[in-house]
Amino acid sequence: MNMAPALQPRRHLARGKVIVGIIRWSLTALICFIILFPLWWIFISSITPASELYTSPIHYLPLNPTFENYARALSDMGIASKVKNTFIITGFALGGSILFGMMAAYAFARFDRKGIKIAYLALLFSSLIPGIVTARTTYDFYRTLGLIDTYPGLIVLYTSALMPFSVLILMNFVQQVPYTIEEAAEVDGANFLQKLFLIILPLMTPAIATIAIINFITCLNDLFTPLFFANRIDVLSVGITTVPRKNTYDVPWDMISTIGCIIILPIIIFVLCFEKKIMEGIMAGGVKQ
């Protein structure tokens, strides 16, 4: 019996899988190159002497790599104090947005009352208003309270900016947690706080990891808030604006690249620590049943 005709569809199917695999990995490599090449270029610019930045032809590997720019950033620009201020403000803002966001998300998800729904919609609507629109009135209010150029003032501003997104993700996640779990905890004698922190909180770990990563990146990228509401408290995002220049046309790309690498490094470390929870948290918190 001739089996050749029967083998033809299998051969075509296997060939089609190979072609699809080649296309998929080619697109993946292209996307990775588009994303990673700018990061690589910033890094090599930060370790390349200023006299070699504009050499022709272009060198994609520095001929004389040096970490002098990082030493200058530490000694001349006070980058250490900027890092300290950034992590103090960002750490408290992340903790506040997670703690208060979790409690607000639980209330919005579990209590079905008209006033609570209005508060939820008002919270989401506040995220649609650009910060520059309310900057003047907020500045006057902060000046009255004496919160301008203070850690508590910046922490409150950062936390309030992170709350809408945090509540949105966490609330959708809480809605997918069966209420029977809480009822079983009540039967065992658990009170409200025990249910919230011992039952719901561990189940929300993927969503919390997701919002922690996104909110951390948001805090590091925020330029307007520390630039407008602080003068003496410098953070990393404002560091690029303080790079010294000889004149308007002399742009020190080596130092700017160095500051950029210092800003990007904690983001990469933070994402690597929580990357396993990113997709799980996004899928669990962004899709309703």
Keywords:
MetI-like fold, mainly alpha, flat, 12 helices, disordered C terminus, 289 residues, 2 domains, single chain
Task: Give an overview in words.
- The chain is an all-alpha fold.
- The chain has two domains: 9-66; 78-286, Orthogonal Bundle (MetI-like fold).
- Helix content is 74%, strand content 0%.
- The protein is built from twelve helices and no strands.
- It has helices at residues 4-46, 68-75, 79-110, 114-126, 135-145, 151-174, 179-187, 192-203, 205-221, 224-229, 236-239, 253-286.
- Helix 2 (68-75) crosses helix 12 (253-286), helix 3 (79-110) runs parallel beside helix 6 and helix 3 (79-110) packs across helix 9 (205-221).
- The N and C termini lie far apart (54 Å).
Order of SSEs: HHHHHHHHHHHH
Distance between the termini: 54 Å
Give the DSSP E fraction (strand runs of 2 or more residues): under 5%
Rg, please?
25 Å
Average per-residue pLDDT, rounded, comes to: 83
Instruction: Give me the CATH superfamily of the largest domain.
Output: MetI-like
User: Strand pairing plus helix content: what structural class?
Assistant: mainly alpha
For the record, the CATH class of the largest domain is Mainly Alpha
What kind of sheet is the major sheet? none
Please, how many domains?
A: 2
CATH architecture designation of the largest domain = Orthogonal Bundle
Q: Counting H and I runs of at least 4 residues, what is the number of helices?
A: 12
Q: What fold name goes in the CATH topology slot of the largest domain?
A: MetI-like fold
Q: Which residues sit in consecutive blocks of at least 5 with pLDDT less than 50?
A: 285-289
Helix amount, in percent? Answer: over 70%
Global morphology: flat
Number of strands: 0
